[in-house]
Amino acid sequence: MPDTAWAIAEAVQTGSQSALHSVERSLARIAATDGVTHAFTAVLGERALERAAHLQSLQADERARLPLAGVPFAVKNLFDVAGLSTLAGSRIERDRAPATRDALLVRRLEAAGAVLVGALNMDEYAYGFTTENSHVGPTRNPHDPTRIAGGSSGGSAAAVAAGQVPLSLGSDTNGSIRVPASLCGVFGFRPTYGRLPRTGTYPFVASLDVLGPFARSTRDLALSYAAMTGRDAGDPASLIAPSGSEGSDVRLTPDAIRGLRIATLDGYFHENANDQSLEAVTMVARALGATASTTLDGAEQARAAAFLITNAEGGALHLDDLRARADDFDPLTRDRLLAGALLPAAWIDRARRVRQRVAVDAARLFKRFDVLLAAATPGPATPIGAATFNVRGRTLPTRPNTGLLTQPISCLGLPVCTVPVWSGRSDWPMPVGVQIITAPWREDLALAVAAELERAGVARAPVAQF
Amino acid sequence: MATADPLSRLLDANAAVLNLGISEAQRPGVLSYLALAEAMHRALLPVALGPSDESALVFVPQPPGARHE
Fold first, then answer.
1. What pLDDT is stored for residue A143 in this prediction?
2. Domain total for chain B?
């Protein structure tokens, strides 16, 4: 039975499988496994079955033209879904009126034939890297339910790893797609800041937020990405995206990466990664024939700038609720937001200026290299409830630091495809991800490199066994 | 080097201006995150910035007839 988005779509397009069957399979898998993973906060069975029936009612040639025909997908619960309150992982938003319309990217995926089956768990207001949500409980890693799924899009990664859906959407402000993709062993893709419009989603940090897909194959990422691109005035950031096809016209064939100059990031990215993560980067570099290494100057400052901008924008966004009902926030989020609301403006302005400075320096680096490699997380998934973890002999708090290696990259707004790497060693049974980083608007190169790694067998995303 | 005292004063002053009540139970956590933010700010200080170093915050004017889907 097909279990990737492209294979399901082909089966539905050709009529060898019905959309109804693919949706029923997804709903059955969710029912059988979500008691363990706790990826979903809402399952939309009735809506999904109606949508699948609609797809079946189309003429065969109409259905054959839908690139995601009959593909079940789910979204982080900060995406608007008509009829549901947009929770963004919170208790507070339960009191808001239900959304009257789906988020733009949900509408675009459904216009391409995909079928929304549910909404997914996350850290409250996307402020965390673990999806240990105090209101509804943690999402568990499908490959080891005693461990975190990562966050803040933990439900999105876990649902794909568990085989509940072949495709999901999440958001990435400081690493919230790349971290859970790394820890759950799936492919995760964050396009350039501004590429995909965020219209109809609950914001966290408007100057950093990016939306993107999770899947178990690069081809699925490319299919969904193609269906979602295009500016929308509902999100001013999307108006900076190139209007042509550059970066969105993706080719995954081997010739697409011929001649690319690829380097591994050293310095900060070595100092904050443990042995398994460094080994994963080495495996990827070897498969690509990449022997060069280089330094991203200002990586530590970019991380610090992202931290401050996030803290301040997040605190300001929630100021009214912090005043009126602070105790309704997740305790894991509340004190950080309160602190963020109090920061001096001069600190934040400096952070924004440093951000721009480091982005200019990074642009020079991309004159020398087309692709940069770095680990996505310092190590594999930590146990649920672990307050700290170790990296290179240092003990760090888990929640603010699991994104150490992703934060500098998203601060610069760069596109990244995170690929899952399994060491094959019995003492390293869990996956870690490697970031395939490219220049702004060159998503096509990140996806093409990821596809090559998939063909080489270095990157793979098996469905978790229960 | 700043101590907890300036951060405590920052907390009290800014919370008062913002009319943001911070309970005794919340105070230690908020102070620990203010200390973390201050450490991040200090990490930025070695970067020499001049008047021409622009902020990453850019306003995007809305074109007439901008399409809202």
1. 98
2. 1
CATH code, A5-455:
3.90.1300.10
Q: Point out the residue among A234, A343, A357 whose CB comes nearest to the CB of B69.
A: A234
For chain A, say whether B16 makes contact (Cβ under 8 Å).
no
Put simply, the answer to whether A234 touches B19 (Cβ < 8 Å) is no
DSSP state letters, A357-422 = HHHHHHHHHHHH-SEEEEESSSSSPPBTT--EEEETTEEEEHHHHTTTTTHHHHHTT--EEEEEE-
B29: in domain: yes
For chain B, give the longest Cα–Cα distance: 53
Region A226-239: what's the mean pLDDT? 92
Length of chain B, in residues: 69
B56 found inside a domain: no
Residues of A labelled as active-site residues: 76, 152, 176
Q: Where are the domains of chain A?
A: 5-455
In a domain, B65, yes or no: no
Q: Computed from CA positions of residues A101, A107, A113, A114, in that sequence, does the dihedral angle turn out positive or negative?
A: negative
Instruction: For residue range B9-63, list pLDDT tens digits in order.
Output: 999 999 999 999 999 999 999 999 999 999 999 999 999 999 999 888 777 676 6
Question: What residues of chain B lie within 8 A of the CB of A340, using their CB?
Answer: 33, 37
Does a structural domain hold residue B54? Answer: no
CB within 8 Å: A339 and B62: no
DSSP string, A57-97: HS-HHHHHT-TTTT-EEEEETTB--TTS---TT-SGGGGSP
What pLDDT is stored for residue A400 in this prediction? Answer: 84
- Tokens representing residue A223 in the block: 């299919």
Q: Which of B30, B63, B68 sits opposite A338 (nearest CB)?
A: B30
Residue B63 sits at the chain A interface (C-beta within 8 Å): yes
Mean pLDDT score across all residues of chain A: 96
DSSP A149-187: --SSSHHHHHHHHTTS-SEEEEEESSSTTHHHHHHHT-E
For A438, residues 6+ apart whose C-beta sits below 8 A from its C-beta are A366, A370, A371, A372, A414, A415, A416, A445, A446
ipTM of the prediction greater than 0.90, yes or no: yes
DSSP A180-219: HHHHHT-EEEE--TTSS--TTB--S-TTT-EEEEEESSHH
Closest CA to A77 of A208, A261, A202: A202
Best residue of B57, B58, B59 to probe chain A, by most A CBs closer than 10 Å: B57
Which tens digit of pLDDT belongs to each residue from A170-220? 999 999 999 999 999 999 999 999 999 999 999 999 999 999 999 999 999
Tokens coding A308: 């401050």
Q: Can you give the pLDDT at residue A245? A: 63
Q: What is the pTM of this model?
A: 0.96
**Are A407 and A307 in contact, with CB atoms under 8 Å apart?**
yes
